[in-house]
Amino acid sequence: MFTKMKNIDTAFRYVRGFTMLVIAGCIVICCYALYKSFEAVALTQEKVYILANGKALEAFSSDRKDNVPVEAKDHVKTFHTFFFTLDPDDKVIKENITKALYLADDSAKRIYDDLKENGYYSGIISGNISQTIRIDSVSVSVKEYPYYFRCYARQDIIRTTSILKRNLITEGTLRNVSRSDNNPHGFLIERWVTLENKDIGVENRK
User: Fold this and answer.
1) What is the pLDDT of residues 146-182, one digit of tens each?
2) Where are its TM segments located (predicted)?
């Protein structure tokens, strides 16, 4: 009789141990499944689908801090492109300058006002002159805020008979502002100054 009870007690211990093991395994599996589910949901929320030319392109969102150097450089390039791309058309000049001034503070506005007062833009229109710019490089330091930048570029001033080539170096700082249609990168150029803008050569047009 005692042997039978001992066997029952041993069997009960085995069953209880096995049950506890199964329960622990279920808890581990459930926790892992929940973790992977939340991870999958988070990854899905970071995906963005962009429709371009009838094709759906997949893109991934990222934190702003990961893109600061790239966005800052593109902001500087965009500003310089708008500010220095001019054609002998008053409407084109106003449109480009207006777009550029959304990206910078009054330091750029003062330079524009000085050029306008000195007849620079009227001279472009009356002389049928076009001005283009090619950005060679932009360096941005994100170690300190506001971010310091320096822009290296080449200008082509296209006249009827010649093309004047100029070297352009500018610098300034960038501070964060709200994004908008007029300022998609969310930066504002401050303390913008021209360090160098000198002639480097003249090319005759054929």
Assistant:
1) 999 999 999 999 998 999 999 999 999 999 999 999 9
2) 12-35
